[in-house]
Write a structure and sequence with these properties.
Blueprint (H helix, E strand, L loop, with lengths): L7 H9 L4 H11 L9 H14 L8 H13 L8 H4 L1 E7 L2 E7 L6 H12 L7 H21 L27
Antiparallel strand pairs: 1-2
Helix pairs in contact: 1-4, 2-3, 3-4
Length: about 180
């Protein structure tokens, strides 16, 4: 009988040290907007967190490590927290008199709370250090909106509700930022 239990600390994290945190996390963040993976957003967000926390090198991610990270989320039970019907829902928010599309969960993303936060940001002082925060939020809203519109992701519709066993790593040939 094998007494060796799979853990992130023993099995995955040591393998991540040589990989670039930004390139590795970027791969998983891009999948969040792919309708095929929208039922796995909890797992993808955890993969992003792990990449940003434990990758420390400059090595570009390869198919093997990307698949291993994705599968690790299932092996340690993270995938049990997925709630596909509520995870990805494209909604519209308003900021500085412009509308933006955001990928927010029906419940977890709290679209109403996001809108309240944006309303508060519009009324804070315009000088430093507040202007840095409002500029970053504005940039994030702009980029997210542009990605959603460019990819024609449907608004006010739940993403794919089917679970996928494997991650497609066909995007790994692309040059990541």
């Amino acid at each position: 009988m094998n007494n060796h239990k799979y853990t992130l600390e023993n099995n995955l994290i040591p393998k991540l040290e040589s990989f670039c945190p930004i390139q590795t996390a970027t791969f998983f963040s891009g999948l969040i907007l792919n309708p095929s993976y929208q039922s796995h957003i909890y797992r993808l967000e955890e993969a992003i967190r792990i990449c940003l926390s434990y990758c420390k090198g400059n090595k570009k991610p390869n198919r093997k490590i990307l698949r291993e990270i994705y599968k690790a989320m299932e092996l340690v039970g993270i995938s049990l927290n997925e709630d596909p019907s509520e995870d990805v829902f494209i909604s519209k928010v308003w900021y500085k008199s412009k509308s933006y599309y955001l990928a927010l969960g029906l419940w977890e993303g709290c679209i109403n709370e996001v809108q309240i936060f944006l309303n508060i940001l519009e009324n804070i002082p315009k000088e430093e250090p507040y202007s840095e925060l409002t500029n970053k939020v504005n940039e994030l809203l702009f980029i997210t909106d542009k990605i959603i519109r460019k990819n024609s992701i449907e608004v006010n519709k739940i993403g794919n509700e089917n679970f996928l066993e494997n991650i497609s790593v066909s995007y790994t040939h692309l040059t990541l930022p």
